[in-house]
Design goal:
This protein is about 35% helix and about 0% strand. It is built from five helices and no strands. Heme C binds next to α4.
Length: about 170
């Protein structure tokens, strides 16, 4: 192996182990299937909505509405589906960004079990079902008052589809 190749391998290994070291500081992800409504939403509502909800949106971030939460705040998307260790939300609740940036910014830090549930939820794809949020955050431009009035589209016919067999042969030659 050439020396340059050897060196870059060494560098890659060092980078990989640095990421592993950071990940090792995190409480392990829960191993069971995690459900957003049962496992995740209660943590967000009891510990995060106070500052990231209807009344306050610290760092322009709110956790009580799917669209707003996934879009994120000042630092962009706080959740990377499938990669909890790289997700800002996990780094912040685990205090990896420093103690003054540990979330929640008030009260007891989250316990290892709660962080494990958040991690597992993200690693399992961060599935946030539609229609489970208690608030509906409407983008101002999406609001009906900003749309030109128009006729509603006619309902689609629900009658049985006609099944007229094609007389054309399916061969193309
Ligand atoms: C007491 C208020 C408070 C509570 C409760 C709180 N936060 Fe925060 N959060 C803040 C403040 C203030 C900032 C901005 C920090 C800064 O940039 O200095 C912030 C920033 C963040 C950010 C970074 C957003 C960005 O893009 O910059 C994330 C992620 C976050 N909070 C997640 C959470 C989570 C998850 C919870 C609940 C477990 C939570 N926070 C609870 C006050 C709070």
């Amino acid at each position: 192996m050439k020396l340059a190749e050897f060196k870059s391998l060494g560098l890659a290994a060092a980078l990989v182990s640095a990421v592993h070291l950071r990940a090792a500081e995190l409480p392990p992800a829960a191993t069971r299937p995690v459900d957003f409504v049962k496992d995740v939403q209660p943590i967000l509502s009891s510990r995060c909505y106070e500052c990231h909800g209807e009344k306050k949106q610290k760092a322009e971030l709110r956790w009580d509405a799917k669209g707003a939460a996934l879009k994120g705040g000042e630092h962009g998307a706080p959740i990377v589906p499938g990669r909890s260790a790289e997700s800002l939300i996990i780094q912040m609740v685990a205090g990896l960004k420093g103690d003054d940036l540990r979330m929640p910014a008030k009260g007891e830090p989250l316990g290892a079990e709660q962080i494990g549930l958040l991690r597992a939820w993200i690693d399992q794809g961060a599935v946030w079902p539609d229609g489970v949020d208690l608030v509906k955050v409407v983008d101002a431009r999406e609001h009906w008052a900003f749309k030109a009035p128009g006729r509603p589209a006619p309902p689609e016919s629900r009658g049985p589809k006609s099944e007229i067999p094609s007389t054309r042969s399916s061969s193309t030659d």
